[in-house]
Design a protein that fits this description.
Layout (H helix, E strand, L loop, with lengths): L13 H8 L5 E5 L6 H14 L4 E5 H6 L9 H20 L3 E5 L5 H8 L7 E6 L3 H7 L4 H6 L21 E3 L6 H14 L4
Parallel strand pairs: 1-3, 1-4, 2-3, 4-5
Helix pairs in contact: 2-8, 4-5
Length: 197
């Protein structure tokens, strides 16, 4: 890093912003295969947080690749950089006192572990959407799995690129067995039990 770049501390701290908002700030890091329900569930949790007056925002994988990460491909190196950037942006949101929900496949354990290190205790909540590959393929409205199996898309997670499930996520939800509403309520209950919201 250039020695002329200096970190400027803010006069208002994270705790000040959390106090103003009336709740803790943290990241709900949704991870799982394409089609496991990350975006759908993140949106329902976001809606429920909004309904009880909590300030939250979603960072969605496809949306981020339209702007901030549009220069990245799907090679392993670019996937690592994609998650690194999202981790840094998520940290800024948490520092602002906001609850951030991320919906990214984030296939590699090491990358998720590096992001976790950016946060304080209970600020990084890994939510693993455990859904069988066959179910994810059946849900695939974009036809990505079919294209990957036909060789039209390379480095597709679950087909020709690995997904490494979390070893000890804070929450694991089988989205092939639990509906969106129930899954969202279980997340909200987890947050309430820990006095985070």
């Amino acid at each position: 890093m250039d020695k002329n770049i200096v970190w400027h501390p803010a006069s208002l701290k994270k705790k000040d912003r959390q106090f103003l908002n009336g709740h803790s700030s943290f990241v709900l890091w949704f991870t799982g295969l394409s089609g496991s329900g990350k975006s759908t569930l993140a949106n329902e949790v976001d809606r429920q947080l909004y309904s009880i007056g909590r300030r939250s925002y979603i960072l969605d994988g496809d949306n981020i690749r339209h702007g901030l990460n549009r220069d990245l491909d799907f090679t392993n190196e670019d996937r690592i950089e994609n998650i690194r950037r999202i981790g840094e942006v998520s940290k800024l949101f948490v520092d602002s006192g906001t609850i951030i929900l991320t919906a990214f496949i984030s296939p590699f354990r090491e990358d998720r572990a590096l992001v976790r290190k950016l946060f304080e205790e209970e600020e990084f909540i890994e939510v693993y959407l455990n859904c069988p590959l066959g179910v994810c393929e059946l849900r695939d409205s974009k036809g990505l799995y079919k294209r990957a199996r036909n060789g039209e898309i390379r480095n597709f997670t679950g087909i020709d690129s690995p997904y490494e499930p979390p070893v000890q996520p804070e929450l694991a939800i089988d989205t092939s067995q639990q509906g969106v509403q129930g899954a969202a309520e279980s997340i909200i209950n987890y947050l309430k039990e820990r006095d985070l919201i």
